Amino acid sequence: QQQVKQSPQSLIVQKGGISIINCAYENTAFDYFPWYQQFPGKGPALLIAIRPDVSEKKEGRFTISFNKSAKQFSLHIMDSQPGDSATYFCAALGAGSARQLTFGSGTQLTVLP
Amino acid sequence: EAQVTQNPRYLITVTGKKLTVTCSQNMNHEYMSWYRQDPGLGLRQIYYSMNVEVTDKGDVPEGYKVSRKEKRNFPLILESPSPNQTSLYFCASSLLGGMNTEAFFGQGTRLTVV
Question: How confident is the model at residue A4, as a pLDDT?
Answer without folding.
Answer: 93
